[in-house]
Amino acid sequence: MTRKRVPYGELEIAGFDESVKAICGSSHAIVHHRETASYFVLSTDKVNAALADDKSLQSDALPAADPEGALPYDLMDEEEFKWLAAESRITILPQPLSAFPAAIAVYVKSELLDTINMPLPDNLKGEKLNWQELSNQTEQVWTTCASESTVDALMDQWGSMLLQQANSELEDYFSTQRGDVLMEAERLIQMAMFAARSLTLQYAVYVRHAVVIMFSNEQERLGDLCELIKPLFPYWNEGAFLRAAHSLAKSLQITGDVREYAAQVAYDRFTEQPVETDNFATMAEKELQVSQSLLTSSPLTSYPPTLAMSEEASRKVLNDILAISDIEDLHERMRKAKPLINACKKKLTPDTHRWIQQIVEEELKKDPESQLIPLPLGSVAALAVEPAIYNKGVLRAQDGNVKVHRIAFSGSATKYKENGFHPGVLAKMLTV
Amino acid sequence: MIVLHRFSKFLAKFTIGKKLLAQLQRVWRVVRGEVAPRDFDDENRRQIYAANISKASKIAAKIHLVHVVRGKFVDMILTPPAELNTSVAGSQPNTRQAEETLNLGNCLYFYAGRALKRVGGVALAFNASCESGHTGDATPFDSGGLVGGRIQSNLADEQAKINYCNSCRVDLQLWRQEFAKYLAAYFSQIGDYWEGRPAWNDAAGILLHPENTWQAWTYEVRFREPQAILDVEKWCISQTERVLYYQKALASVTPPWEKALLLDFAKKELPAMGTRGYAQELETWVRREAGV
Fold first, then answer.
1. Interchain pair B276, A54: CB under 8 A
2. What ipTM did this prediction achieve?
């Protein structure tokens, strides 16, 4: 074997450089070069990129006809390969797969798939996934290889589904206060830790673990949790993380019917006319789609963590809104939803706070003593994740009447004008 | 130093003294590795050596020793005495075979400044202070790679490889000085040790052999005794291993002393972005620390 690039046609994926230690995982593929009976890790990292740029390599060794070949960087012979597998340091595939650039192996236990009730996908992001069952495992484990982005997307998908289930368990816990439900939520969250690849999703997972710990008998673990995860997040802010956990805990304690009322009234105010519930649901559905697409492409999906949290909680609220009614007559609902969708496109910008601030400022200009400030539905979702709102006990429905009252700041409207808007002092957004 | 300075000023007053002083200064520079080896037949190479040696010495003094752990990391930390062990029966067969062939004894292996991942979930970087109290040696290549055939050379047979390896072995106490000279002598830019390859060949034809990769020019440092894991300066870890570490540290059933140990050790973790190239992230840190 030389430092020449080896055409992928001469290689096959024989295994991956990790043993099955978790509910799911991913790792670099190990390829086998039959001609030389050698193995090497198919790296996707910058080291190989740097070597490929090596002038001497390009000039005397890199075959121009094989630009897609793999660069062997660290070789193992048959004996070493088998020894590492026997020592459970690498995993051998039962059936070798065709090698391709930047292949990453992914494995998943059936336990995870059963938990989220999801079959193994045949393809994802246009890539065909050929699953095979790993042998010599105590549990049923499936594996395949795909590009790094596809593997990450798949694992994030699993992580998101586990997270949704964890949310449901946490909601159940808050209504039942049963310890076993909290333990189940923790089990799901711990599984999601292995699956979540994106930092945003990992952050959301650890926020939920913080919620579990907050309501366990070992709250002192919260400080340890922060210590352990801060190396993961480059812009770590412990205060923001804990606020997000508190906010999530409180939002999960609000029952769905209250959210329904709040959202309905908000929508009502936005359109300035009462709507039927099913129409409202349609609007909410549309807004959910728009919101999600906007959120996906906006900085909300990245750091700082507070915004990542807002996204999660916002989606949660919107999902619950969506679930309130049956959906009929799609075209009609689409027509009615259009103004709201347009408004969302314009208004649900990455910086929702600034948007809300603008609305409030405009209202206050019109009437400094205003007691009623109508806000679009998107803002309700955005504000619903603000800890200060929950701290003031808002989103409470009584007698079927929810009204959007004025926004009260930490002091008065006068004080607000002096000090300017700050999301942390938002309060009494929705009061009964 | 004052006495030496006065003595040199005294010598400089006489013609013969000047010559003697020049010779003494040259010897001093040779001892310090500031003079290019005599086998340099290329003036350009001499100039590059002279330009690089000062920086190479600083890098060599600071460079971390890196070890990639293969096995259950959490268990290794929590099992007293929490050490990286030298090779033992049951270690990788190739390693044991190479040790026997080269008469190295049972060793614990590090690479100087390189954290390239083969297999394993955790990369550890130890600073120079970890060497105190150890015996061992070093070679400017992967010893197992040479005798095992992964490193190509012009050495005719196994005995020639053994002889060459023996001639290159440097005592652990001296390896950093030799590493500095090596960086200056064989790399036109010191960064090529990490990103490229040597610019000049060695006597065995290893460094410029087109089939060789990084193991052929990376310094391998060997301890003959185990190394305490907790003395590491920085470490980084794969996602799976990290979650296992996290869950163990936070588990209700984990004894308090184990939790305390894991939490304390976690303070030395290199902040990472959760990439699969965690070992490369550690290497980047090592390079930055060394001023490369």
1. no
2. 0.81
